[in-house]
Write a structure and sequence with these properties.
57 residues, alpha+beta, 4-stranded mixed beta sheet, 1 helix, 4 strands, elongated
């Protein structure tokens, strides 16, 4: 029997999670699902449709 992948949640490393929010939200229409700190986040989840991405410092 073959398995089926339902979802993937990649963690994308970067230098500035807040700027990543800006890019994904304003250019790609994602929205914030959660963040560890609203002003200077170091880890967060952003979603659009069935896509879930986790930017991390």
């Amino acid at each position: 029997m073959k398995g089926y992948l339902h979802q993937i949640q990649p963690v994308l490393l970067g230098k500035d999670v807040v700027n990543a929010f800006d890019f994904y939200m304003n250019l790609l229409d994602f929205r914030i699902a959660f963040a560890d700190d609203g002003r200077k986040a170091t880890y967060a989840g952003i979603i659009r449709d069935a896509i879930d991405i986790h930017p991390q410092l």
